Structure formats: C-alpha cells, structure tokens
Amino acid sequence: MRRVDAAEIDALLPQTQCTRCGYAGCRPYAEALASGAAALNQCPPGGAALIESLARLLGREPLPLNPVHGVEAPARIAWIDPQACIGCARCLPPCPVDAILGAQRQLHTVIPAWCTGCELCLVACPVDCIHMRAWPDAMPQPQPADNRRRHHAHEARRAAAAATREQALQQLKHRATSAADPT
Length: 183
Ligand code: SF4
Ligand code: SF4
Ligand code: SF4
Description:
2 domains; flat
C-alpha cells in the first residue's frame, strides 16, 4: 500500500458530497483513505471505475463495491413538485452545493445543472415533495471540480453565518452582563 496525499485521492472522487461512504463528504473520505482507515469500495457514485482508479493510486487490490454503502446506478436529479411545496425552506441547508433556490414562504426549485443527485434534501422535506428523476440525456452533468467549488462556497457561507450568530450571541451576553452590573 502506497502513502498518498488526501488531495490526490480527493481529486478522483465524484464530489457529490452524498455521505454514502459513511463520511461527512468526499474530502473526509479521501483523508480516511489516505490514513488507511477506510476501504476503497465505499463510494457508490464513483462505482467500479473509481475503485479501479483508487486501487491503482493506492497500490491496493480492487474490491467489489460494498453494498452496505449502496449500489452503482445511473445519475439522478432532484425535482420539486411546485403544487406540493409549502415554502418551508428546510431543504436549503442540507444541499451541499446550494442547488436549491427559494426563501421562506416561497416556492422552491432546483437549479438542474448544479444538482449532484446526493438526495440529502429528501429527508429534510416535511411534505415529501422532492422527487429524484432520471438525469435528462440532453443535459450535461456537473463536473467534480464544479461540485467541489460549490461545496467549498457552501461550507464557507455556513461558517460565516455561524460566526455571525456567535458574535451576536456574545454581544447579547455582554449587554445582559453590563445591565445586571452597571459598576
Ligand atoms: S461521492 Fe459520496 S460516497 Fe463518494 S466519496 Fe463523495 S461523499 Fe463519499
Ligand atoms: S438538490 Fe437535493 S439532490 Fe440535488 S444536490 Fe441539492 S441536496 Fe443533493
Ligand atoms: S423542504 Fe419541501 S416543502 Fe419545504 S421548501 Fe423545500 S421542497 Fe418545499
């Protein structure tokens, strides 16, 4: 088995960020592979072709995809039923590439060319109005590099929002402490 940098492994992964490998996204799986903690047959979106590539890179024996993590299947795309969407916005945070457009009390819709088919939005919807459909033949699928860039932007936005919330909380605490002890 060869020691390989996680970035080199991450470059091979599909970047759907679906978490089916059992890790929080493609980069954490790449890091687990680099450290030897993960098997190379845990990524259903990458399937057999990815396993072959990983086996070559890591100097390991290829294995069949572990069915515990899912099965290899054609690409799918999320679609929101406009008749059923209640505009609750719960599907926005889990989308790892910000492929859903909408705001509170507004109809939500998927940006088709950005959807990685990860299915993470499905469980968030309280009215089950998000459905997975076959990827349209005529539409190109998003490339891994685009998925990675959009995911980094998503993570950066979430981190900035969390920092803003924390700052506001600290200011509130400071004001409450000052009001209780004006000396
Ligand atoms: S595509 Fe999904 S299963 Fe494959 S490495 Fe990325 S998060 Fe894991
Ligand atoms: S719209 Fe749903 S299926 Fe598509 S990338 Fe976002 S969370 Fe995944
Ligand atoms: S979670 Fe479902 S109902 Fe709520 S905004 Fe998203 S698609 Fe619409």
